[in-house]
Amino acid sequence: MTNFSIAKSRRLRSTPYTSRIEKQGVTAYTIYNHMLLPAAFGSIENSYKHLKEHVQVWDVAAERQVEISGKDSAELVQLMTCRDLSKSKIGRCYYCPIIDENGNLVNDPVVLKLDENRWWLSIADSDVIFFAKGLASGHKFDVKIIEPVVDIMAIQGPKSFALMEKVFGKKITELKFFGFDYFDFDGTKHLIARSGWSKQGGYEVYVQNTESGQKLYDHLFEVGKEFNVGPGCPNLIERIESALLSYGNDFDNSDNPFECGFDQYVSLDSDINFLGKDKLKEVKSKGAQKKLMGIKIDIKEISLTGSKNLYDEKNNIIGELRSSCYSPHFQMVIGIAMIQKSHWEVSQTFKIQINDSTFSGKVCDLPFI
Ligand code: THG
Question: Is 3.30.565.10 the CATH number for 289-369?
Fold first, then answer.
C-alpha cells in the first residue's frame, strides 16, 4: 500500500508536543478532532512490544475537551449521555456514550466532573461542541461551552507507575482507576487521571499550563531512561487486542449503544432525562439486530482502510469488518466487526475477500480471549 504525506495547515492543528515528537521520529499522523494525532513511530509491532514491557509518553492532545460550566451544566451533560450521572463525584472520570435523539452514538468521551457546575468531556473524533451548543441554545440552558486550552499527555505501560512515582511522589500511585487529582511539577499543579487508551496501565496529564507541560514532557524522558521510556501513540494492535473501541472506526452515528456492547453504560430505569431515551427503550425491548464482535482469520497480514463485508457460504452479507490488524499474541489476524444477529453464534465461519483472494475466518466474543 502506498502511503502519502500529510499537508499540514492551520486547520490540521499542531499540538504543543508536535516539534518534540518530530525530533523523536514520528513517522505517521492521523487527524482527530481536526488535530494531528501521531499514529506511528516506525514499526507498529515494535512499538506494541515496547508498550507492553516498558513505558511510553504519548501526545494525545487531539483528545480535546469540551468544557461545560454554569448553573445548568449537569442537566445538559446528562441530556447528552445515557449513563446515569446523578450520583457522579467530583474527582472521578466516567466513560459516557453520547447519544442523539434517535438513540444513536455521537461520541464516547471520558467525562470528568471537575466541580458540581463544571465538566470536561474528553472527546473522541466528532464535533461534540456544536451538538452541545445546539442543545444548550434550544433548551435555553444557562451554560458556557468552550474548548479550553488542554493538551493531554499520556504515560502508558507497565513501568508508567514507577516513572510517575519518580516525578510526582508516592501519592500518585494511590490514584484509583478513573480517578483524578492535582499534582505539583516544578511549582505548577497538573490535573492527572489514572486512565488512558491502552490496557497496559498508566496516566493522563491534562496540561493547561503549556510551558510547564512541555517541561514535564522533556523531564519524563530525562528521568525515564532507567525505565526504558520511549515516545509512542495509541497503538492499533494493542487497542484491538484489548478491544478498546474507536468512534468512527468500530462504530459511528449509525449504531446504538446496545449494538456496541455499551449496555452497562445505559440507564433506562432511573428517572434521568437524556436524548433518545424512549428510542433506546424501544431498541432494548425489540432487541438489537446487529452487534460488535471479534473475528479471527488465520492469515499473517491485513491492511484495512475502510470497512469490508463478511459473507456466508451463500454469499449473503453477514456483517462488516471495521478494524483489523495482525495480532502477535494470537499469531493471526484479529478484528472488530459489526455482525448480523443470524451469525452471533461464536465460531460461526465467514468468508472475506482480501487482495482478490478469499479467506475464511471465525466470529468470537469481545474482549478477545
Ligand atoms: N482518554 C481521554 N480521552 C479520550 C480517550 C482516552 N477521548 C477519546 C477516546 N479516548 C474515547 N474513548 C475511550 C474508550 C475507552 C476508554 C476510554 C476512552 C476506556 N475504557 C476502559 C475499558 O474499556 O476498560 C474503562 C471504561 C470504564 O468502564 O470506566 O478507558 O483514552 N482522556
Answer: no
